Amino acid sequence: MFETLSDWDRELFIYLNSLGSDNFDAFWIFVTQIESWTFLFVFFILIIFKFYKKKEALWVAAFTILTFLVSFGLKYITKTSVQRLRPNNVPELSETIRVLQFPVDFSFFSGHASVSFAVTTFVVFSLRKFTKWVYMFYLWPILFSFSRIYVGVHFPSDILVGAFLGYGIGIGIYYVLKKTKFVSLH
């Protein structure tokens, strides 16, 4: 069964990666760069300070950073333990796929997906009582995550596991903050 799932994962990756076009490469390379999204992380912190009083905002901002660190740490531990090769480093795929980046570290699970979904989920849960448009923030992790398949460095399962773990981490840390009573969260 694991082999069947692995085959589906590989075939879905090849299909999605093959949808790429030279006309869109620059866009997806920009999207996949962590530096391209730094402004959004700063925006998250600023909007937290807009909606919360100073002391509460400091707590929410600190827990946003904690969310990032927990997700990043779990990703690092898992990648070094599992040691799954990235698609761009699998010799059998080298002639089949489009590769626009060449990282040499491991693939499982996607740090881009886990960190972006964790931070976004925490921020959305923290701000949803103020405004419903915060759900649009999920556009970031969706684009960020898909870009990793487009540039040839993650299998779909890397993305899905990273996204689900990130979502869970974001919710979990939100509820930890909620239990502390440092911030009035609803």
Automatic annotation (TrEMBL):
Name under which the protein is recorded: Phosphatase PAP2 family protein
SMART domains assigned to the protein according to its UniProt record, in alphabetical order: acidPPc
Location of the Phosphatidic acid phosphatase type 2/haloperoxidase domain: 61-174
Keywords on record: Membrane, Transmembrane, Transmembrane helix
Listed InterPro entries: PAP2/HPO (IPR000326)
Lineage: Bacteria, Pseudomonadati, Bacteroidota, Flavobacteriia, Flavobacteriales
Organism: Halomarinibacterium sedimenti
Matches recorded under Pfam families: PAP2
Residue intervals passing through the bilayer: 26-49, 56-77, 106-127, 134-153, 159-177
Keyword Cytoplasm part of the UniProt annotation: no
Keyword match Transport: no
